[in-house]
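ok so i was messing around last nite and threw this chain in just to see what happens. nothing serious, just curious
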Amino acid sequence: MTYERGIFPGLLQTGEYAEAVMRAGDGLWWEPSYEERAERVAFRLERQRVVFDSTPPRRVEFIVTDDAFHAEFGDRELMRRQVEHLLRVADRPGVDLWLLSATTRNSPAPHAGFTLLHFEPPAPAIGFASVAYGPSPYLDDPADTLPLGRVFQRLKQLSTGPAESKDVLREALRRS
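result:
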């Protein structure tokens, strides 16, 4: 389960989009380096391959706020290809994509995203809280991961469902 605000999650990014995101931080979060950016993008794409090409397919749910469409990285054509990619990923077995308005009233997670990973018992769920600056905490105590699951379920209730989200993406492509 992944919820992200203002940016498409790494597992949903095209290589081009990931490169543009990395380029925006090049020389700021790490020393300026094409090699560093290329390694980060390659890592992201490999992680996607592992998740989406697994047998049997993994169950993956994403909630993305609509302001991710307005925080453009690269040019308009790159963003168009990113939306086309979202549609292809959303059509994969075991993948649900939910869209949430960034201005949703009473959002239980208005400022930052998170990821919650579930494993076969007895392994505990692991949470990862996204932060913009500094290290992101990993959470494995049920006192932390259970609330993340409840927040994710509440965000789904506030979101546009998977079928309607695909319609929104198709409409965005028609308008671009």
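not much to say yet. Residues 2-8+57-175 form one domain.
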